[in-house]
Amino acid sequence: MSCPTELTLSIYADGELPEHEAHRIVAHLEACAACSALFTALEQENVVLMEVLGEEEAVTVSLPAAFSTSSLSASGSSASSWVLGAVAAAALAPVMLDWVWQATPTLPAGVGWVINLGGLGGVFSISRGLAQLFVGGQDMLVSSFGFVATLFVVVGTLGVVALRRPLAEATAGLALALLAALAPPSQAHAAELRYEKEGTVKVAEGESIDDTVFLAGKTAIVAGVVDGDVFAAAERVEITGTVRGNVYSAGETVTIAGAVSGNVHAAGKNVEVDTKIGGSGFLAGQNIIVTEGSDLVRGGYFAGESVRSKGRVGRDLIFAAETMDVNGSVERNVRGYGSQVTVSTTGSVGGDLHVTVPSQDAVEVDDGATVGGVTIIDIDKKEERRAFLYPGFYFGVLAKALAMLLMGLVLVTLFPSLRPPAPESSKEVLRDMGLGFVALIATPVVMLIIALTLIGIPVSIVLGVVYAVLLFLSTLVVAYFAAQRLPAADSRRRLVLNTGVSLLVILFVVAIPFVGPGLNFLVHIFGMGCLVVHLRNLYTKSHGSSDSSMSQPGVIATE
Amino acid sequence: MDETELETVLREAQLGSSVAFGQVYGEFSTRVFGLCRKMLGSHAAAEDATSEVFERAYEALDQYDRDRPFDRWILTIASRHCLNRLRRESLEKRLFHDEPVEVPAVAAASSPLVALENREQRRGLLRAIDALPENYRVPLILKYYGDLSYDEIADHLGTTRSNVAVLLHRAKRELRSGIRTLGKEES
Known about the structure:
CATH topology of the largest domain in chain B: Arc Repressor Mutant, subunit A
Number of helices of chain B: 8
Helix content of chain B: 55-70%
Largest sheet of chain A: 13 strands, parallel
CATH architecture of the largest domain in chain B: Orthogonal Bundle
Largest interface: A-B, 48 and 53 residues
Structural class of chain B: mainly alpha
Number of strands of chain A: 23
Order of helices and strands of chain B: HHHHHHHH
Number of helices of chain A: 13
Radius of gyration of chain B: 18 Å
Shape of chain B: elongated
Shape of chain A: elongated
Number of domains of chain B: 2
Helix content of chain A: 40-55%
Strand content of chain A: 15-25%
Largest sheet of chain B: none
CATH class of the largest domain in chain B: Mainly Alpha
Distance between the termini of chain B: 45 Å
Strand content of chain B: under 5%
CATH superfamily of the largest domain in chain B: Winged helix-like DNA-binding domain superfamily/Winged helix DNA-binding domain
Radius of gyration of chain A: 31 Å
Oligomer: heterodimer
Number of strands of chain B: 0
């Protein structure tokens, strides 16, 4: 048979040719290379058209008034965006602070201790704390998790409000926050709320409550007996009575002098513990003091500018502090980060003393002090500011650039579709950076949360690896975009060369003191955002195409 | 939303639940908007059209036959609506008649469309589609975006199946040459 017309082939490619004719075409295509090539091109054209037309545009259409009811705001999509917003906002705050403080050479007085929570040491101590939580028993884990969840939701809600999300969503967030606050287990079934804006809220002496108690006011005092947990937020929080559950408190001054059977979570400018605590003490503040005669039966976790531990700690003591004094006894190990650490004559450590400090003489172990295990002092060297003077630096940058380029080449060769498209407008750049910021910060938080469930640890590890790879590649992505802007970027070889050059420039720039870290951060969030967006697009595309394969033209024709 | 979920929501919507219809809206508005945008060529017109389409769909919901895919149903409403609009707007233009248009023939075998790699080029293609004359653009969009069959398109446009085939064929030829010139301008 003679070759069919292009029109016939086009109809066939659309899957619209009647069956008997289609049979003839199939036979012909097998025999005729020219027609077969033409047909393939036509088919590919259809795919391109479908893809290009299918790329969705932002919809800003609102629902017609006839059925736009407020109840729509309860739909799934807005709820999930809320959750995302909350998690992102919650994750954002501490890291932002940390980043700001890291980047500021001089710190305002009184917040110097925060720096100890950041950086690698901080991550280490947090993960160490988590490990302790696993070991420390389920109760502790659950209650701490409840606490963390509460914090997250509260901070998240504030974040959402700050981002001026609609009121309804913020309200829902607050409701959730309350729910989450109730989530920590306690013997009590209901909660008692006491609130006094200007005055004193009190569980009076002789009063006994077998509920969880929430106290908020200028001054909050627990002098009586509480069988459940105590949540207290006030300028001054005083606990002199008996608490059989946990204590969660925040205020300018927090004093725990009564007996607490559970854990104590306290944050404030001044935190004082002068009692026996059945669980662990998680204390954070400018000045933290655990008095002589106090006893933290489980562990002590302290973060503060000036921390004095004069009492007894039943298990490990973990701290991050500007100045740390260990005057009391610690039954097991001490692990900490600080600029000045002293173990005084009255102090004793049952296990190892392991501290990370800026210099050797920042650690003082007085003559009378005893350390049962070994004493390890890690010197935390400040970043070398004059790296540019040493040739090793240049080799390092060169090696890093080569490694990145090589990895990128291998990846692109193996999976060509991984190459992300460059953003086209400043709006897209901003969007990518925002997303990257969220991804950069939320992923470790999500990993921690998943890891908390124990079963989730493998998932968390996988997530960590993906995260690390994305982070590594983000610089490369930015270099690649820059390379596209350079002249003659259309030949493959030039593009690779350009990418290498841009990569070198970026790596040098981010090593510049003071400016570098900030730029590095921007490069990472931008690159990461682009990658995340691109991966998501790839996913939806593969997802979408497998879906729509059912409605390909060929199928329509047979309907 | 998976199929069973969609079914439930549709049933509820048919029973008159405006919340359920809101969910239907959330699910399909993007595609309807996309179709309107591509057929009408302007964002604002597409916005109006989308809400009108959903209003119409809301009124006609009890006529919807649940054995048919819902997206097909609503996209049909949308394309009819857009066509009516286009017709209203250009009464004197006789839209879909057989007119022989001379297009420089670019062979499909080396189609430049296939080689569109980056986003910029794809944008260029979208622009070229927007620039197509209406009688080419509409069937092209109904076919490759709305996923309608030749028969359905023919029915919509009040023409024959074979004419639809010809229109599509020519539309693609036009696109090819459009992209060619675009490529030449750039280089």
